[in-house]
Recover the amino acids of this structure.
């Protein structure tokens, strides 16, 4: 990992970083396949219809584009969509650890005190002497099948000791996570990834057009002051992708703000245009995901 990324490692380890990003992508892919077209609805004409918004942003009349190009576009867009959705469900999904740590720590202390109260070697000796349980019987069957109070209490202690071990391990983990978590709203990475990755596709098929978004400001015409308007084929391309992948992001009340984020992200791409390729490796290590997050923060 580059030196530029090292200061961000602790910050990003507190996030919902998957241990195997490729595995998450495979799960997303299978879910998307389950929701995909019925048999016979995956040909070029079907792809032209379902991707019309994307294709019109590239070519005014997509019907004139050859079938091979249409299939290539669909393959690349699907690949980006899978990674975009994987990021949304992992890195962009904030999981607060402090309440988890506090609840588990409280429960762990209670279990520890209970185990101390239940500890009685003499009772255990009696339970072992009169008990009929065999090692291959499940613990819950031992409790329900016990014929004496000594056996039931001994089982309860054994069970809580096993829980005690598991709880202590969980408490230690969430204490570590809790120490890393910072204040404030966490960064979002899905949109940045999508804009960077889609820009490659757009510039490869748009006859030299750049992946940029235009911004104009109304200076008073029609009685409106400082009203911003965002336009451009690349903006249409990204919006069409979001309509396909995450339509909830296109809420009317937040649309102008989203367009401005797309514009700023497209502009920031010149600082690290290959950033998204970290998530296109055959094997994506945790270090790759952390570096992606660190470099994404650096270009914002």
């Amino acid at each position: 990992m580059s030196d530029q990324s090292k200061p961000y490692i602790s910050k990003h380890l507190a996030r919902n970083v998957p241990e195997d990003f490729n595995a998450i992508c495979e799960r997303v892919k299978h879910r998307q396949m389950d929701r995909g077209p019925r048999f016979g609805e995956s040909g070029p004409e079907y792809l032209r219809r379902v991707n019309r918004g994307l294709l019109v942003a590239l070519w005014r009349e997509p019907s004139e584009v050859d079938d091979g190009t249409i299939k290539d576009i669909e393959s690349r867009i699907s690949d980006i969509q899978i990674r975009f959705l994987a990021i949304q469900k992992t890195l962009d999904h904030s999981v607060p650890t402090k309440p988890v740590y506090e609840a588990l720590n409280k429960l762990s202390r209670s279990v520890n005190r209970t185990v101390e109260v239940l500890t009685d070697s003499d009772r255990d000796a009696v339970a072992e002497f009169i008990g009929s349980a065999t090692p291959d019987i499940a613990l819950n069957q031992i409790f329900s099948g016990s014929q004496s109070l000594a056996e039931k209490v001994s089982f309860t202690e054994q069970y809580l000791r096993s829980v005690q071990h598991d709880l202590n391990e969980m408490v230690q983990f969430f204490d570590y996570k809790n120490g890393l978590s910072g204040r404030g709203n966490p960064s979002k990475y899905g949109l940045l990834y999508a804009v960077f990755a889609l820009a490659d596709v757009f510039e490869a098929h748009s006859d030299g057009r750049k992946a940029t978004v235009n911004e104009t400001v109304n200076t008073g015409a029609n009685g409106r002051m400082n009203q911003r308007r965002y336009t451009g084929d690349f903006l249409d391309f990204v919006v069409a992708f979001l309509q396909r992948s995450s339509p909830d992001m296109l809420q009317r009340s937040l649309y102008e703000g989203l367009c401005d984020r797309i514009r700023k992200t497209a502009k920031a791409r010149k600082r690290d245009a290959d950033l998204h390729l970290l998530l296109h490796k055959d094997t994506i290590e945790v270090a790759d995901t952390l570096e992606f997050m660190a470099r994404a923060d650096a270009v914002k």
